[in-house]
Amino acid sequence: MEVGKTMQNQKYKVLNNTLFEVAQSRSFTDKDNLEEKFNEQGRIVLVSDRVGASLTLSIAKNDDVISFLVKWDDSEEYFRGWNMAWEEFQWCLDVVNTKPKETEATEATEATEVTETTTEATEVTEASDVTEATEVTK
Description:
alpha+beta, rod-shaped
């Protein structure tokens, strides 16, 4: 279990460890003093991605109802329970973390194609130079 947790910690950053642990284990109570911790938008950010893709999981307050908010760029989705919010956050996190790898793979493939094309062009040029040299010596 620790290995999976360590690997996940590399993908996201916990911004409020106390509330993050509470959210995973139980419902919030008055003892948690949430009212004092909400920002101007009525949110408490718990975790964010490390890649910088604007992905966050927050506690949100709407009409005096506490819910979880997964926000990614201009997309927002509210959840009543932790498990669904956490699953959504992890799914988004996986997408965020695979995008750079796909881009790198595409760039590597394109670079290989350019190298192969350049090699073929060089071989054709060398072959025509040899043909011209042979004709000159005849």
